Amino acid sequence: MYLFLSMLAITDLGLSLCTLPTVVGIFCIGARDIGHDACFTQLFFIHCLSFLESSVLLSMAFDRFVAICRPLHYASILTNTVIVRIGLASLVRSVVLIFPLPFMLKRFPYCGSQVLSHSYCLHQEVMKLACADIKANSIYGMFVIVSTVGIDSLLILFSYALILHTVLSIASRAERLKALNTCVSHICAVLLFYTPMIGLSVIHRFGKEAPHLVQVIMGFVYLLFPPLMNPIIYSIKTKQIRDRVTRAFCY
């Protein structure tokens, strides 16, 4: 569990660092311009880390499934080697799927208004600034979302259905509550990640009449809120982390 938490923390930190240059530039020194190459590089890392976080959340769901449904086999199933392989597979999947996007955007000419709604670059917004047919980009972008976020969210729901089935078969009410309590932090992290991501995707693809302020707010919530809240959630719900934080700041 702590190895997966470390992966989640590193991914959240990476997302924050990817958005930091442009966010700080806008709000601290008023720098509102970004070059094409810098923009394409930023969106590559943002999308890559976003889909990597989706994979990490799926891995954590699998961790909860094994801990609750196969507790006697937990140590033999989730060995350090298996966890490293899961992490590498998640990273490779994200990089392979996102790698074509900057090159697909780079081939377009850009003209007219080139103003972004967010303080960072996203594929679904940058491609709309192109003076060319973006149908291929739109289709590929949808394919990437379905093959990552779509599949991951369905597998997470399936794992929790199995967890719930196992928990309801436990005779003791106290034991049922104890088992479910171990999943609260992960459920909160899943909701914090998927809800803004799905909302932002819906707004960009179908909410053309949505107020500009809504797009701006959703953009900030999508990338800045989960990295802020995940450490708080896991610090509150995980006794070992809470005790270590308390010792670090109180002694």
UniProtKB/TrEMBL annotation:
Main location: membrane
BP terms from Gene Ontology: cellular response to lipid
One Pfam family cited in the UniProt record for this chain: 7tm_4
One GO cellular component term: plasma membrane
Gene3D superfamilies linked to this entry: Rhodopsin 7-helix transmembrane proteins
Top-rank taxon: Eukaryota
Membrane topology: Multi-pass membrane protein
Keywords: Cell membrane, G-protein coupled receptor, Membrane, Olfaction, Receptor, Sensory transduction, Signal, Transducer, Transmembrane, Transmembrane helix
Domain G-protein coupled receptors family 1 profile: 1-234
PROSITE patterns: G_PROTEIN_RECEP_F1_1 (PS00237), G_PROTEIN_RECEP_F1_2 (PS50262)
MF annotations from Gene Ontology: G protein-coupled receptor activity; olfactory receptor activity
SUPFAM superfamilies referenced in this protein's UniProt entry, alphabetically: Family A G protein-coupled receptor-like
Signal peptide positions on this chain: 1-16
Compartment(s): Cell membrane; Membrane
Entry's transmembrane regions: 6-31, 43-62, 82-105, 153-171, 183-207, 213-234
Function: Putative odorant or sperm cell receptor.
Family: Belongs to the G-protein coupled receptor 1 family.
Name the record gives this protein: Olfactory receptor
Organism: Pteropus alecto
